[in-house]
Design goal:
This protein is mostly helical. Helix content is about 70%, strand content about 0%. The protein has one domain. The relative contact order is 0.16.
């Protein structure tokens, strides 16, 4: 196995895993602000799941982009990780992933600052998780060859649909009654 193949496989595996962790983090975060899923578990369990998935996403996302930078076939420059639409290959797909990464990093960096910044600012930045989730899904759909695997596709579409339904309900109705 060549180094490039190893990095490509690592990028694919960590990309899918990071996407699942992000979907779980966003879905559990939405659940914390709604009461739709209160019967499934107490709010403390949802908070722990949200924290765990958020923390899990960080190393998975970092490994995903590191593997792509190290893969000589992909030819991803470090600047491509923060500046979207620079790549010649998969410009749209990779650009959407770059924007999603930028948004998720903004949310992750400000998350621990909740008590140190004005609540309105923290909330506005934290809500960037919604477009980040949508952009990550589009990135995975357009750039990820793993959507062609039925089992992977079923899991990713199911999680994305659940997150989209909860996000839509949250946006339209706010905090929902139990």
């Amino acid at each position: 196995m060549t180094a490039d193949l190893l990095f490509w496989l690592l990028a694919r595996a960590t990309g899918v895993a990071a996407f699942v962790a992000l979907l779980v983090a966003v879905t559990s975060g939405i659940t914390l602000r709604t009461s739709v899923l209160d019967r499934i578990g107490p709010i403390r369990a949802w908070r722990e799941l949200h924290s765990f998935a958020t923390i899990l996403w960080l190393p998975l996302g970092a490994l995903h982009v590191l593997a792509l930078v190290l893969d000589q076939t992909a030819r991803v420059d470090p600047i491509d990780l923060v500046v979207p639409f620079r790549m010649e290959y998969g410009t749209l797909a990779i650009g959407l992933g770059t924007i999603a990464l930028d948004l998720v990093l903004a949310v992750a960096i400000t998350a621990p600052l909740r008590r140190r910044v004005p609540m309105g600012l923290w909330t506005a930045v934290h809500r960037l998780a919604y477009p980040a989730m949508a952009l990550s899904f589009l990135h995975a759909l357009l750039a990820g060859s793993d959507f062609s695997v039925p089992e992977v596709s079923a899991v990713l579409w199911s999680l994305a649909a659940a997150a989209a339904v909860l996000a839509g309900a949250r946006v339209v109705w706010g905090r929902l009654p139990a």
